[in-house]
Amino acid sequence: MPSTVHQQPAAPATAAPPPFVLWREVLVSYAAPAVMAGIGGFATGQTELKIAAVSTIAGTSALVAALVGARHRRRPPGSWAERGPRPLLALAFGLGAAALALAVGLAGAQWLPRIPALADSPWPGRLRFDLPVSAAIAGTAITWRWRGSLPRRRRAR
Are residues 135 and 57 in contact, defined by beta-carbon separation less than 8 angstroms? Predict the structure, then answer.
């Protein structure tokens, strides 16, 4: 006689979030903006954008990702960054990175043209825009991904 009792399938186990692997995050933080800005440079025929794509844009993004990611990895369990709202945390780190990069970009745009080899180059002038935008995106993305890699129990209040 067939059984009339139907067993409910077990609820799927919640998968652990993917681990935060810093070298992969830095690699993606370099490659993604380099490819996207490079495509823009090729599509518009702007040589300086092609060069900036693999230097100031992608380089800034990778550097900020490495610095912010390394800082997040050293945080003790239960720190304020693990407890606060994820969007607010990502916004704060993105804006902080942008502010620091803007200061560096403004200083570089002011001082680098004084070097004879760079006097006629448009590259130093790009620093005021390339550095803060790249830093903001990288700081926000790395913070968002780091926070998402934490187990839910560590994120609970």
Answer: no
139, 97 contact by CB (below 8 A): yes
Backbone angles phi, psi at 45, to 5 degrees: 75, 25
One-letter amino acid at 16 equals: A
Rounded Cα distance between 65 and 71, Å, is: 10
Tokens 């009792």 belong to residue? 5
Q: Are 62 and 30 in contact (CB under 8 A)?
A: yes
Q: What is the pLDDT of residues 33-64, one digit of tens each?
A: 999 999 999 999 999 999 999 999 999 999 99
Task: Give dist(CA 93, CA 80) in Å, integer.
Answer: 13
Alpha-helical regions (H) of the chain: 22-44, 47-52, 58-73, 80-83, 86-111, 123-148, 152-155
Residue that is written with structure tokens 């239960």 in the block: 78
Task: Give me 142's structure tokens.
Answer: 């790395």
Give the rounded distance of the alpha carbon of 85 from its chain centre: 18
Q: Which residue has the tokens 């994120």?
A: 155
At residue 40, the 3 state secondary structure works out as helix
Provide the whole-model pTM. 0.83
